[in-house]
Specification:
Radius of gyration: 38 Å
Number of helices: 2
CATH topology of the domain at 88-136: SH3 type barrels
Strand order of the largest sheet: 4-3-2-1-5
Largest sheet: 5 strands, antiparallel
Length: 149
């Protein structure tokens, strides 16, 4: 037995294939979709659950979404339209941009409202009706925002 001899060349030895362990070729599976014949019964029909039980969760999600998302938004829009329809002279209002004022004139056909912002200086501004965010009722909110003195 020779301990010190010529080393075999690396090319003369066969190299094992370098495939990752999770490769479909290494595991013996195919990458192509294959039908699951084990789920078929004798007649060849699918043995899965009925269509009604598959669709029922989707219907339940749609109903929950309607009551949580769409219906409250529709109610908010309806209340805002009623608020704007009942807008009249001398109502205290708050605009969407945060301006407090008193309604001086409502022109529904032109879709605008004239607001008195400061009575002492006779300052008036004209805004669209849709820019009215709130109508301030008696005692509902003060005429000046909190923090002003």
């Amino acid at each position: 037995m020779r301990v010190f001899g010529p080393m075999p060349s690396p090319r003369s030895q066969a190299m094992p294939p370098m495939l990752p362990a999770f490769s479909p070729i290494a595991t013996g599976t195919s990458c192509l979709p294959q039908p699951c014949f084990a789920q078929l019964d004798d007649a060849g029909k699918g043995a899965g659950p009925p269509l009604v039980t598959q669709i029922l969760p989707l219907v339940a999600i749609a109903i929950v979404a309607y009551f949580m998302l769409f219906r409250p938004e529709r109610e908010r829009v309806r209340r805002q339209q009623e608020l704007l329809a009942g807008l009249k002279k001398n109502d205290r209002v708050l605009t969407a941009s945060g301006i407090y004022g008193t309604v001086a004139n409502v022109e529904r056909d032109a879709d605008r409202v004239t607001l008195k912002v400061d009575d002492a200086a006779n300052v008036r501004i004209t805004v669209t009706i849709a820019s009215i965010a709130k109508v301030l009722r008696d005692g509902a909110e003060s005429a000046t925002p909190a923090g002003d003195s």
